[in-house]
Amino acid sequence: MARRDRVARSLRSPRLRALHAAWSAARPEGGLPRLEDLDLDALEARDDLAVAMPEPGRAPLCFRLVRVGSHLVARAGRPLLNELICGGEDPPGDPIGGAAWAYRRCFETAAPSYEFAHFRFGEDGPLLFERLLLPLGEHGRPARLLAASLFSEPGAEPEPG
Fold first, then answer.
1. Helix (H) or strand (E) holding 76
2. What is the longest distance spanned by two Cα atoms in the chain?
């Protein structure tokens, strides 16, 4: 529980705080919420969300994108549905954040993960990139990941309060 609280306190974006709150509210005691327990379309961050499922038989563990928000598709400039997030070199310009290791860590630990960085992304000016990964369960085990990836100008989102 302490880790969940630390992640919640670290969130910079109100959209990510609302997503984390919805995930926490749907979380059963000692377990993980199911995807079906969350109304993703009701969330302000809905266009910044991806749902990833582990790809069977792949080592290291890879994830297939089974839902991708319109902001992520627009940033990539190509359809992302059914793309794999795997180890090794991630494709340049990957709007999901290019971090298969972060997906694996979140899935294997069944714990939320939050990261942010300031950087130049392609032709855009400096951006703040935030990624919140939330594990989703099925039958008492991790089954999917809910990934929120936000790109904004530094200072556009308020600091955590």
1. helix 70-76
2. 45
